[in-house]
Amino acid sequence: MKKWSLVLMMMMGLLILAACGPKKFEPLAINEKVDICAICNMQVKDDAFATQLTTKDGKNYKFDDIGCMNEWKNKNGTKNIGKDYVRDYNDKEWVEFSKASFVYDETLRTPMAYGVISFKDTASAEAFVKEQGVGSVLSASDLSKHEWKQNTDMMQMDMNGGEGHMDEHKSEEMEGMTSDKEMDM
């Protein structure tokens, strides 16, 4: 009887240890109807620019632009991040941030005008640069030293009727502001 009790206790111990193993942090699906960027509060589109991170305690944050995710990291630090993900520009598959390659050029149109686009590998990033004729290929480590700034000219163009990345409410609000200003003139 004592043998069975000992075996049972050992099995319970192994089960408890297995349950306490490392957490898996997987990317969550984007729901355009409810997901808003944790930094700029704009709608997160289910597109190639969406990024996200999950903290070690399981809280998920979504962003409409990699620049917004970078801003979150600067404000909150990176020690508590379980995993962070970006999307491959070509096929929209989730890629671990640290394994992705990136292209930067201030003229590249991104939702918040940071000009950084992500790719699943360096070959894809290089092909994009060659095809577009602009941009520099960067690694995740390079981005830690990158000067993150928005292209304010592009942001102005988006607000004045260019192809922006706003949710419908913000677009209607901006249209209303434009109409009010035109009426005042």
Which features would summarize this protein structure in a list?
three-stranded antiparallel sheet; elongated
Write the layout of secondary structure elements.
Elements: H1 2-19, E1 51-55, E2 60-63, H2 66-76, E3 81-87, E4 94-96, E5 101-104, E6 116-119, H3 122-132, E7 136-139, H4 140-143, H5 152-159, H6 168-184
Keywords: Signal
Biased composition (Basic and acidic residues): 164-185
Region (Disordered): 163-185
Explain what the structure shows.
This protein has 185 residues and is of the alpha+beta class. It has one domain. Helix content is 37%, strand content 17%. A four-stranded antiparallel sheet has the order 2-1-3-4. It has a three-stranded antiparallel sheet with strand order 6-5-7. Strand 1 (51-55) and strand 2 (60-63) form a beta hairpin. The N and C termini lie far apart (93 Å). The model is unreliable at 163-185 (pLDDT under 50).
